[in-house]
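RETRY 2/3 - previous attempt timed out on the joint model. Re-submitting the same 400-residue input unchanged.
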Amino acid sequence: MIKVFEPCSLGPLILKNRIIRAATHEGMAHANGAPTDDLLKTYRNLSAGGAGAIITGYVSVKQNGRTFPNMRMFDSDGYVDVYKSLNDQLKQYNAPVILQIAHGGSRSMSRVTGQEVVSASPRRKNDFGDRVKEAGDSEVRSIIDAFVAAIVRAKAAGFGGVELHAAHGYLLSEFISPVLNRRKDRWGGTTENRMRIVTEILSGARREVGKFPILVKISAHDEFKQGLTEAEAVTIARMLQAASCDAIEVSCGYGDFMHTVRMTEVPVDAVLGLMPRYRNMPSYQKRLFRLIAPLLAKVRKPISNYNVRAAELIKRSVDIPVIVVGGIRSLQDITAMISEKGIDFVSLSRPFIIEPDIVNRFQNGQDRSRCINCGYCLIGVTANPLRCYYGKVPAGIRQK
Ligand SMILES: Cc1cc2nc3c(=O)[nH]c(=O)nc-3n(C[C@H](O)[C@H](O)[C@H](O)COP(=O)(O)O)c2cc1C
Ligand code: SF4
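RETRY 2/3 succeeded.
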């Protein structure tokens, strides 16, 4: 138990404990991609709440990688000052803020970006009805440059480090996936080729920022036939270590939120109440939706600690720190992951939404998060600022 609350190094950073807030999209962006004032309040609460470090919600490194209108952007130097001021105000809490940088890939929306949707390989339609184009060689290079420029910017803005979002079906993970990447050129085929976009970002960034901490979040398993296996995830982790990555966060899945962010049941009420597309359905369609949604979106088991086995395997194969995320709710489990499985850090997302001070609570004797894994926060944040709904959609809530 003590070990959880002892300082531990995460690459060049020394964290005061081993519990990290996992990246969680806050939905707190202006139309121009800059953060709203609510973001500072949210981060102040998180920083005061005891976390060893805070990984931000994803920000996009390129205009064609923006997913939702409330996703923050980080594709120009114009954003440096506002984050510099935020980081300066948060320094007193000794909880480094690590910026998660992403490109939405096929999960971007052309309605939001005004541009074509690109990914590793083409697709007739994404979830928003947009055609997905294969990124050509020059587009891949410009995406690498955009990631490197964002890392240089993050250092200038006083962040404690960055995390590349290479999980959950966004662009970098689409390149890594043996199923979603069907290319025959140097960006597809072997594991080395599918990883090239990530390793080139790492080597490009290292030349520019030296020892600045760079973490990578990966999906270590999925449910596709011929998909990513834990054995290949170990190879990927070794490649990340060789490419000078400072720490690996182990998650799972591509695009299927019921797999990646597991819920006790399909959040039909939240979808019907919070998403305009569904909220405005005639009532007979709503009834039909209630019936078929649970068949289309399968509930995955287990709900708790579902990436621990993959993280443990990876930890045995690399020397850099490994962070595990996914359904971690109790201090007893956290202690076992660290003391018995040898995993260096744990990260939690939803527990910090319902209780931003969950780490202080753990330290003061509370043994479990109060989160009920309803998943309503995930549906709500697609258009509203992040909050906990605790399984209830308030009457009259409006979505932009
Ligand atoms: C509201 C919400 C927003 C999320 N946004 C991100 C994100 O921006 N980047 C990311 O890597 N994962 C994101 N996730 C996934 C979490 O980081 C985490 O991998 C997942 O929720 C499992 O952890 P948990 O069981 O502790 O919630 C999000 C999850 C939720 C619930
Ligand atoms: S809405 Fe609240 S209780 Fe439900 S999953 Fe999100 S944080 Fe947990």
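The pocket of flavin mononucleotide (ligand 1) is lined by residues 22-25, 57-58, 100, 165, 167-168, 217, 251, 261, 325-328, 348-350, 377-378, 381, 386 (CB under 6 Å). Closing ticket.
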